[in-house]
Amino acid sequence: MSGMSDKNCEEADDFQGVVDSETTLSARKVRAIAALIEHATVTDAAQACGIGESTLRRWLAGDEGFRTALHDATRRLLAHTVAHAPIAGAKAVKILEALAADESVPATARVAAARYLDQRDARLQDFGDFGRRLEELEKLYQSSVVGRGE
Description:
The chain is an all-alpha fold. It folds into 2 domains: about 5-65, no CATH class; about 100-145. The protein has 6 helices and no strands. Helix 1 crosses helix 2 (about 25-40) and helix 5 (about 65-100) packs across helix 6. The longest helix is centred in the C-terminal third of the chain and has 41 residues, at about 105-145.
């Protein structure tokens, strides 16, 4: 199997930082983890990082250290994404608000922007309501546990 192309190497480098810097994994396994994060299938990941698909599947099935590192890297990447989502969301909302208000923009684009903002507001309100209901359920559960002496 051929090695990673220059383009794939650069893309994988973007994700290699999510693997714990203290890892004892080989550079080959770190590249494989980056490729698994980057690509939708094991087949595509194996091809992208120049590792045989059967080798990659064997690591996924039987190498606990590899699986743990993949899980940890995925968790770190998700945490990073979640932490940055509000910033990206705020920028997107500003753009949509500007589009909705700009009369030089075609009406269809202004309506689409306004519709998205309206739907987003409704979803955020539902989310807030869900959070409050969940807190109430947690309080009820805690009071029932305390009441039973557990």
